[in-house]
Amino acid sequence: MRYEGTVYRPPSEAGSLLIQATIGCPHNKCSFCSMYKGTKFRLRPVNEIKEDLLAARDYYGEYVNSLFFPDGNTIIMKTEQLVEILEYAKSLFPHLERITVYGSAKFINRKSQHDTERLKAAGLTRVHTGMESGDDVVLERINKGTTSDEIISAGKKLKAAGIDTSEYYLVGIGGLERSREHALASARVLSSFSPDFIRLRTFVPIPGTPLYEDFQSGAFQLLNPHQALTEIKLLIENLDCQNTIVLSDHVSNYWDVNGLLPRDRGKMLMALEQGLAMEESYFRPPHLSRL
Fold it and tell me: CA geometry: angle at 176 spanning 253 and 275, to 5°?
C-alpha cells in the first residue's frame, strides 16, 4: 500500500483498512481546518487504488471486515470509478461488512439519486459528513461552501439510498455570539432527515488557520466548558430524530454524551447536567485540546 501525506480518518475507522482513493480535499477552504493545507487535490488512478487493495489482501488476507477510503471528500469521484473500486474491494475481501468514505453535502449533491443507489448496491455503506453547523450564517463565516438546505438535501439523498449518514456537529463553531442559533438551526437540519449518527466534536482553534487568527485577535470568542455543554444540551433538547445515535467519540469533547434518540434523550440531558455541576477548573482550557 502507498500513502501520501498525512492520512486522516474518523476515530470510528480506527480498525478499518485505509486505502487512499483521493489526495487532499477538493474544497480545502474551511476557516477552522488545517487538514490537507499545502496539498493539491487529485484523484488517484483507479488502477493504483486496485493495486493497493490487492497488496492489502496479499498482506492481511481476505478477513478484512471494514474499509475506509481517504482522503477528504472521496465521494467526489465519478460514480463509475467508485463502483469499480467498491466492487473490486468486495471481490478481494468477501467478509467486508462496511465500506466508508468522507463526503460533504456539496459533493454528495453532485450525485443523482440513481448514482447514490448504485454506490449502495456496489457496497458503500456509510458516508462521514462534516456538517459542522446547520446555521447558514455560521456556514458562511467558516467558508464551508454549503448551505443548510444543501445539507438537508444530501442527507435525504443518502438516507433514501440506504447509505448510513454520519454527521459531525462542531460544538462552539458559532462562537459565543451565535451559540444558540448554531444549536437550534443544527437541530432543525438534523431533524429533517434523522441521520444514523450525530458525532459531537468541540471546536479548538488550530494555529495557522484563519479562525485561529480571529481567536487571537478577539474577533472570535470561544465557549468555555459550561457554555459548550449548554450548547449541546440545547441541541439535544431540540432534536426530533428517530433512531439516531449521538456519540461523543472524540478527545476534543469536555464530557461523554452518548445515546439513541429519542429513547435516551433524558439520560443524555442528565449526563450534561452532571457535567454542568462540575467546577470549570475540572475541564481543559477551551483553546487547548487533549491531543
Answer: 35
